[in-house]
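ZP: hey, is the nickel (II) ion complex queued? I don't see it on the tracker
AM: it wasn't, my bad. submitting now with these inputs:
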Amino acid sequence: MGKSLWRAWRLPLLLALLVLGGGTAAFAMMLPGDKAAPPAQETPAVVTPSITEPVTPSPSPSPSVSSAVNPSPSPSPSPSPSPSPSPSPSPSPSPSSSPSPSPTASPSPSPDMEASASATPVKCPVPTEPVDCSQVKCAALTFDDGPGPHLAALLEVLEQKNTKATFFFQGPWVAKYPELVKATAEQGHAVGTHAWSHTRMTDQKPKDACGNAARGQRSIVDAGLEAPAMLRPPYGSLNDGAIAACPTFQFVLWNVDTEDWLTKDEAKIVGHVKKDTKPGSIILMHETVEANLTAVPKSIDWLCSKGYTLVTVPELFGGDVPRGQRIFKGPAPG
Ligand code: NI
């Protein structure tokens, strides 16, 4: 009796022991060759910098325009640079030394080939011909203060969304990470300068302000790109004296301020985009803000769902951005 009972239970017992004791090993054996390989796709071709940012992103005033869509922006409306409660350019701590965080929070448990596929379904249409922004609803995403620690991941986000943007790089970081600057241009984004030091043009003599802008411009040339005429003045701070002193620059301001540097909050950033974007808008963001890694794709999805074509700043002006005047397009928010 006892013997036959043992026979009857021996097999299930052995199986139970196997599952409890060697379950992991047995399971591992069922997954041939699936080593703990890192998701290779996520390693960008460029070096991700781990830098300490000395840049205080612009708490910049929104340039105010009274007119509606103005294809050639008039130089008159001043972006009233003064009232911004800007902190002094103290180093903002972003010592993230880790490789670029992956923006793709894929819920899929399979770590295989498809891991880098975006979880977001919306894809912007890719224009097959040059976009005529006088006929099409356009908007331009712009990013200041880099190249920074989140740039590689941001480029990946933009690539997944088929979106081109405009980057305003700051001199010292360009000098430090020229490969990132080149990678940005090679991906089809427009590149301008954010000057060398992050000093208000209005706090300098016009000649010095121009010199600072030109030094930023040269850093981009040294990185291997053509000299950009586009300048995003630090803090958007600009006056007629500075413009007159360096009339060959294209002073690119904005009319949607996401305040990303202030809130660092995805929902609030996207909220600004939804509330303030109009046809022709130039949208201000900072690639140094990590929340943008998720705020940007959500903003893009929303903009595309509303029929916007996302373009670079030069494309917004049909390739011919006016020089020697404040550049923004469309109505100002509020
Ligand atoms: Ni800035």
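AM: back. Residues 57-70+122-327 form a domain with the TIM Barrel fold (CATH 3.20.20.370).
ZP: great, adding it to the tracker
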